[in-house]
């Protein structure tokens, strides 16, 4: 790893109060990404990945819901962001990394092992079809997976009462905000709160959108697999 990347990782460790093993584990994640041309991301160069994956994932720690969570499921985990980043940062947090693509969850499981993480489990499947995960989680996370309304529909059944969806988002257009608010109401989720974050200095328009489960998920949800996307609320 270059001195520049090592210095950036160390600075992120200080910013987020990480201990040394966490910083080392995040360095391993960057090494694995850099070495694997088949990793499911276009951002593999550590000078860029340290910001776009590690710093972006760590920005989740600014949400109290994530700082206080004991259980978290990352829906559509892909290369394990934010799942692996948050699992490294908070070893006491039990993390499930879920994706519909088997190759991706296998990659995440192997990478978690190389990072020395004991608190990551992977699930191959669709969020809306995972009945064993219902009502279990303090937090559902998702980055770059689906519009807000669809994410709320994936998240609501998986959350315990009082749990929260934390979605990594860029700029939300009016349509996504409006449909998100409507979906939240129908699903017993609270009005989505948007929290601006600047994970790296040049980052523009990054935000965490948080919605807390206020009521039991109404009957009829989750709908059939794929329906949330095909016929958004
Ligand atoms: C663009 S990738 C984002 C990956 C990662 N979160 C990141 O930000 O780098 C979206 C991922 O979501 C997964 N996905 C889409 N719909 C899903 C669903 N209903 N349940 C679980 N995973 C899903 C896809 O297979 C894909 O790996």
Which characteristics define this entry?
233 residues; alpha/beta; Rossmann fold; 9 helices; binds S-adenosylmethionine
The number of distinct helices, counting runs of at least 4 residues, comes to 9
Shape: globular
As residue ranges, the low-confidence spans are none
Radius of gyration: 17 Å
Protein name: Ribosomal RNA small subunit methyltransferase G
Family: Belongs to the methyltransferase superfamily. RNA methyltransferase RsmG family.
Function: Specifically methylates the N7 position of a guanine in 16S rRNA.
Keywords: Cytoplasm, Methyltransferase, rRNA processing, S-adenosyl-L-methionine, Transferase
Please describe what this structure looks like.
The protein is of the alpha/beta class. It has a single domain (3-230), classed as Vaccinia Virus protein VP39 (Rossmann fold, 3-Layer(aba) Sandwich), CATH 3.40.50.150. The protein is 42% helix and 20% strand. It has helices at residues 3-16, 20-35, 46-58, 64-68, 83-89, 102-115, 148-158, 174-187, 227-230; strands at 71-75, 94-99, 120-124, 137-143, 159-169, 193-197, 206-212. The chain has a seven-stranded mixed beta sheet with strand order 3-2-1-4-5-7-6, with helices on both faces. A hairpin with an 8-residue loop joins strand 6 and strand 7 (206-212). Helix 1 packs across helix 2 (20-35), helix 1 packs parallel to helix 3 and helix 2 (20-35) crosses helix 3. S-adenosylmethionine binds at residues 41, 75-79, 81, 98-101, 104, 126-128, 143-145, 154.
